[in-house]
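hey so i finaly got around to running the thing on SESN2 protein from Chunga burmeisteri. pasting the sequence first so u can double check i didnt mess up the copy paste, my clipboard has been acting weird all day
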Amino acid sequence: TPLLSPSRQILQEGAESSLRQLLIEAFVSAGRVDNITMVMGLHPQYLSSFWKTQYLLLRMDGPLPYHKRHYIAIMAAARHQCSYLVGLHTAEFLQVGGNPAWLQGLHCAPQKLRNLNEINKLLAHRPWLITKEHIEALLKTGENSWSLAELVQALVLLTHYHSLASFVFGCGINPEEDQDGGHACRPPSPHSDSSPASDDGMGGSGGKDAMREVEVLMERMKLLQESQLEEEGVTQEEMATRFELEKTESLLVAPSDLADHSLQSNVLCFVEDPEFGYKDFTRRGEQAPPTFRAQ
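ok and heres what it spat out for the C-alpha cells, dont ask me to read them lol
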C-alpha cells in the first residue's frame, strides 16, 4: 500500500548507506574491494560480520606473523583447488613480505608449515578422522613445534578457508580484474533489475553459456514430450532412459575452461596427496570410524 512505501524507501536507503560504508572500510583496509565482498554486499549485515572476522584473523594481533597466515590460507584453499582464493592470498602473501620462494610449492615452505599438511587434508575432506595424536604431534617439543596459541589460530584459518572455498564455488565467483581470467564485479544495487552475475559482472560469458545449456536441454525435453504424445505405447521407463541420455549429453560435458592445466599446477603445487578426498562417514555394512570428541 502507499502508506508503506516511505518506510520501505528509508530501509532501502539505510541498506545502501550501510553497504557503501562497508565497501569504503574494506577499501581503506585492504586497498581493494574483492569480488567476495561485492557478492556478500547483497547481505550487508552478513558482510559486516564476515569482514570483521577476516580482519581479526588476518590483520590483528596474534601469535602467527602475517605472511604465515596468508600461506595457511593458500594451503587450505588449494586443498579444495580453489584457484580464486589461492590467487588472492598469493598476492597478499607477497604484499606483507612473504618469501616468493615458498610460492613454488609446499615443498619449499618451512617444515613447520609443511607439518600442517596432514591435519589440513583431514579437516578439508574427512574431519572425523582427526585424533588427539594429530594435535599432540604438532605440539610436541622440537625445532618445528607449534605453540598451542599458534596452532589454534592456524586451525581456525584452515577451517575458515575450507568453508570460504565452498562459498566461492557456490556463488561462481571469478578472479579479480588484475588476476588471470579476471572479471569486474559491479556493486549490487537494490534499484537495478539486473543480477550481480550480469554480462559485465562476475558471471561473464560463463553465465550465458550455462543458461544456454539449460535452454537447449529444455528444448530437447519439450521435443521428447511431444514425441511421446505422437508415439503411443512409449513406457515411462523408456522416457526416463531418454531423459537421462539427453541430460548426460548436454550437461555432463566438461567445460573447456576447467581443463586449464597451468592453472591447476599453480594450485596443486601446494597440495600433497591430491587423490585424498571426501569419503562417506558411515557406509551400510561398515563400522563407523572412532570420533574425537572434546566437551
